[in-house]
Write a structure and sequence with these properties.
Radius of gyration of chain A: 25 Å
CATH class of the largest domain in chain B: Mainly Alpha
Distance between the termini of chain A: 29 Å
Mean pLDDT of chain B: 87
Oligomer: heterodimer
Number of strands of chain A: 20
Number of helices of chain A: 9
Structural class of chain B: mainly alpha
Strand content of chain A: 25-35%
CATH topology of the largest domain in chain A: Rossmann fold
Helix content of chain B: over 70%
Strand content of chain B: under 5%
CATH superfamily of the largest domain in chain A: P-loop containing nucleotide triphosphate hydrolases
Radius of gyration of chain B: 24 Å
Low-confidence stretches of chain B: 277-282
Number of helices of chain B: 13
Number of domains of chain B: 2
Order of helices and strands of chain A: EEEHEEEHHHEHEHEEHHEEEEEHEEEEE
Helix content of chain A: 10-25%
Number of domains of chain A: 2
Order of helices and strands of chain B: HHHHHHHHHHHHH
CATH architecture of the largest domain in chain B: Orthogonal Bundle
CATH superfamily of the largest domain in chain B: MetI-like
Low-confidence stretches of chain A: none
C-alpha cells in the first residue's frame, strides 16, 4: 500500500560524528510522501540528531539527505521545505499567538490580508480559534504546543518535523494529543516525522516506525510488524515487554521449528526460521500471549497439545509476583525448571483477579504461532 | 490572656509581621537614605553654612543655576555619560553575544580579562589612563565636545564590562530553540537576531545602560586623572567647591543631580516595564 508512494525524504548512508562520538552511524532510509513516520529509540540513540539533520541544524559528517529529490547539502534551515515543532515548543514569548503564527509568513513577504486569513485557518485547525491576542505566558503547555504546531503548519511545509512533541504533557493530555496529531496529519496530508522515546506514542500514531539503537536503525516496520515480528532482541525488548529465553535450535523445517530452552522447556513454532541448525538463538514471547491455568486438571497440556507435539509449549511454576493494574494483572512466575516468566492476563470479568494468589502453583501454555525466534 | 487584636496568628515565615523585623527594615532605610535626605533638606537652608537650620529659601538653586562653571560641568558630565552609555551598550552587548555564542581560541583569556576593569582599583585604572593618554600624546586643547574624548574613552573602558556582565546573565536564560525556530520559519541570521534574541536581551540592555550611565555620571577618580587642564565634570567641580566650604549651593546642585537620575531611571523602567527586569520567560 505505502510501497507505491514516492519517497519525500531520502537519507543515504548518513553518519554524524561529534568529535569521537558517533551519534548517527551510516543510516539509510526513505520516508514516504504523506506518511506518519516515527523515529523511536532510547535517549542517546541518535534519533534527534537525525531529525536535526533533516531540518538543517546539523550537517551530516558523511552521506546525503534529499528532500523532494533535492540534495540538502548546501541548503540552510531557512530555505528548506520542512518545518519543525521543537521539544520546548520555542514559542516566541514576546509575541502574541497571532504574531507567532504569522511570523514565517511575514518573513516570506505574504500580504497582510492573506496572512490574517491563513493565521486564522491554522489556529482553527489546532483548535485555538479566538486565542489570537493571548500572550504565550497566559497559556498552558498544551496550548503553547498547539501554537507551535499552527506556526509550522501555516507555512504549508512538505514535511513537518516534531521533536518529542508529547513528552512534556501529562498522561491524559498526551493520549488525547496522540489521536489529535494522527487526525491532523490525516486532514492536512503533510508528511509527519516524529521523534519519540515512548513506544506507546509510536505504535498509536505511526504508519511506519524506525527503531534506532546506538546510531543505527535496528528495524524499520509498521507498528504491528514491529510488535509481532521484531527483528532482534533490542527491538523485542524496547517495543512492549517481552520474555526472552536463550536456547538451541533443534528443529528447523519450512513449516515447523523447535527450540530447546534450558530453564523453560521445549518451544515449538508452526513455521520455519531458516537459522543454522544447533545455533544459539533467542526466543521472544509476549506476556499477553501466555495462557494461565489452575493446575491439576492438565488443561495446559491438553491446550498445548492442540497445535504442538507432546511436551512442547507448556510450563509449570509458582506465582512469585503479582501486580494488579485494573485492566490487566501481571504475574511473575518462577518455573519449576528455574527461569522466571512474565504473564499478563486481562481481567475480563470483575472477579478474574481472584482466580490466583501469591505462591499458587500454576500451569501455562502458548500457541505455536506466538513465539518469535531471534538470531541476534 | 485577653486577645487585644482578633487577628490570624503569625505563620512561621511571616517575618514582616514581627516588630523586630519592622524595626530592622526601618533602620536599614534610615541608614541608606538619611544622609541624602539631610543633603536635600539643607539645600533649602537660608544660611551660608550647613550646620544649623535658618529658614527656607530657594536662592541657592538660583545661585547654582547661575554658576556658569557648575552648569558647564553638569553639561559636560551629561554629555560624557550619554556618549559612554551608547558606546558601552553596543560594545558590551556585542561582547556578551560573542562570548555566549562562539567558541574560539583564547576564549578563556578574553572571558577572564573582560571584567578586569571592574576588579582593578579605580585609582590604578586612572593612573594607567593618565600615562596612556600622555604616551600617545592625546590632544587636550580641542573644541567642545572633542575635548571630552579622553574622559569618554576612559569611561567606556570601565562601563562596558558591566553591560557585558548583565547581558550575559540574561543570555544564559535564552532558549536556543527559539532562534532555531525563527530560522526554521525562514528567518535569516540577522532577522532571527533582531526578532528573537534582541527582544530577549532588551531588559538587560535597559539595566546595563542605566548602570553605565550612573557609573559614568558620578565617576570622580578616573575622570580626575584623564581630564585636561580646562575640562571639568560635575563631580570634579563639586569636589573643588567643597574644598573651600560646603555651601548650600553644593547641596542644591547635588539635589538636582539626584532628581535627574531618579527621573531618568523611572522613565527607563516605565518604558521597559519593571516586571521584565526580573521575570524571565520559561
Amino acid at each position: 500500500m505505502t510501497a507505491q508512494k514516492s519517497p519525500i525524504i531520502e537519507i543515504r548512508n548518513v553518519s554524524k560524528r561529534f568529535g569521537k562520538v558517533t551519534a548517527v552511524d551510516n543510516v539509510s532510509l526513505d520516508i514516504l510522501a504523506g506518511e506518519f513516520f516515527v523515529l523511536l529509540g532510547p535517549s542517546g540513540c541518535g534519533k534527534t540528531t537525525l531529525l536535526r539533520m533533516i531540518a538543517g541544524f546539523e550537517m551530516p559528517t558523511e552521506g546525503q539527505i534529499l528532500i523532494d529529490g533535492q540534495d540538502m547539502a548546501h541548503v540552510p534551515p531557512n530555505r528548506r521545505p520542512v518545518n519543525m515543532v521543537f521539544q520546548s515548543y520555542a514559542v516566541f514569548p514576546h509575541m502574541s499567538v497571532a504574531d507567532n503564527v504569522a511570523y514565517g509568513l511575514k518573513i516570506a513577504g505574504v500580504g497582510r490580508s492573506e496572512r490574517e486569513e491563513r493565521v486564522r485557518e491554522a489556529l482553527e485547525l489546532v483548535k485555538l480559534g479566538g486565542f489570537e491576542d493571548r500572550m504565550p505566558d497566559q497559556m498552558s503547555g498544551g496550548q503553547r504546543q498547539r501554537v507551535a504546531l499552527a506556526r509550522s503548519l501555516v507555512m504549508r511545509p512538505k514535511v513537518l518535523l516534531l521533536d518529542e512533541p508529547l513528552s512534556a504533557l501529562d498522561a491524559k493530555l498526551r493520549a488525547q494529543m496522540q489521536f489529535e496529531l494522527a487526525d491532523l496529519q490525516d486532514q492536512v496530508g503533510i508528511t509527519f516525522v516524529t521523534v519519540t522515546h515512548d513506544q506507546d506514542e509510536a505504535l498509536s500514531m505511526a504508519c511506519r516506525i524506525a527503531v534506532m539503537n546506538k546510531g543505527d536503525v535496528a528495524q524499520l516496520a509498521t507498528p504491528s510488524d514491529l510488535y509481532e515480528y521484531p527483528a532482534n532482541r533490542f527491538v523485542a525488548d524496547f517495543v512492549g515487554s517481552v520474555n526472552l529465553f536463550e536456547g538451541k535450535l533443534t528443529l528447523d523445517e519450512p513449516d515447523k521449528a523447535a527450540v530447546d530452552c534450558p530453564g523453560v522447556g521445549k518451544i515449538y513454532l508452526n513455521h520455519g526460521v531458516t537459522g543454522p541448525h544447533g545455533a544459539d538463538v533467542w526466543v521472544a514471547l509476549r506476556p499477553e500471549k501466555i495462557y494461565l491455568h489452575v493446575p491439576g486438571a492438565g488443561k495446559a497440556v491438553q491446550a498445548a497439545g492442540q497445535d504442538a507435539p507432546e511436551g512442547h509449549n507448556f510450563a509449570r511454576g509458582r506465582i512469585t509476583g503479582m501486580s494488579y493494574l485494573g485492566d490487566i494483572t501481571l504475574f511473575d512466575i518462577t518455573l519449576d525448571d528455574g527461569a522466571t516468566i512474565r504473564v499478563s492476563r486481562p481481567n475480563l470479568s470483575r472477579h478474574d483477579q481472584e482466580d490466583f494468589e501469591w505462591n499458587d502453583r500454576v500451569s501455562m501454555h502458548w500457541r505455536a504461532d506466538s513465539p518469535v525466534v531471534l538470531l541476534s | 490572656m485577653i486577645a487585644l487584636f482578633n487577628r490570624t496568628p503569625r505563620a512561621p515565615l511571616e517575618y514582616t509581621r514581627t516588630l523586630w523585623m519592622r524595626l530592622w527594615v526601618g533602620s536599614v532605610l534610615v541608614f541608606l537614605y538619611a544622609p541624602l535626605l539631610v543633603l536635600m533638606i539643607f539645600s533649602f537652608n537660608d544660611s551660608k553654612r550647613n550646620v544649623v537650620w535658618r529658614g527656607f529659601t530657594t536662592k541657592y538653586y538660583e545661585k547654582a543655576l547661575n554658576n556658569d562653571t557648575l552648569v558647564e560641568a553638569l553639561v559636560n558630565s551629561l554629555t560624557i555619560a550619554g556618549l559612554a552609555t551608547v558606546f558601552s551598550l553596543v560594545l558590551g552587548a556585542m561582547t556578551a553575544v560573542m562570548l555566549w555564542r562562539f567558541k574560539f581560541r583564547l576564549k578563556g583569556i578574553v572571558d577572564g580579562t573582560i571584567s578586569l576593569p571592574i576588579i582593578v582599583p579605580e585609582i590604578c585604572l586612572g593612573v594607567a589612563m593618565l600615562i596612556f593618554f600622555a604616551w600617545v600624546d592625546w590632544p587636550t586643547d580641542l573644541i567642545w565636545p572633542l575635548n571630552l574624548s579622553a574622559i569618554t574613552i576612559a569611561h567606556i573602558t570601565f562601563c562596558f564590562p558591566f553591560v557585558t556582565m548583565v547581558v550575559r546573565a540574561r543570555l544564559a536564560s535564552f532558549n536556543k530553540e527559539e532562534e532555531e525556530a525563527a530560522k526554521d520559519l525562514g528567518a535569516s541570521e540577522w532577522q532571527a537576531f533582531r526578532d528573537v534574541l534582541l527582544p530577549h536581551m532588551r531588559p538587560a540592555l535597559v539595566a546595563g545602560s542605566l548602570l553605565a550611565f550612573t557609573l559614568s555620571l558620578d565617576d570622580f577618580v578616573i575622570t580626575f586623572f584623564t581630564a585636561g587642564p580646562d575640562t571639568i565634570t560635575f563631580p570634579v567641580k563639586v569636589y573643588s567647591m567643597v574644598r573651600f566650604s560646603v555651601t548650600p549651593e553644593v547641596n542644591a546642585a547635588s539635589t538636582l543631580l539626584i532628581v535627574l537620575t531618579v527621573v531618568l531611571t523611572a522613565i527607563a523602567l516605565k518604558i521597559q516595564g519593571t516586571r521584565n527586569l526580573t521575570v524571565s520567560h520559561a
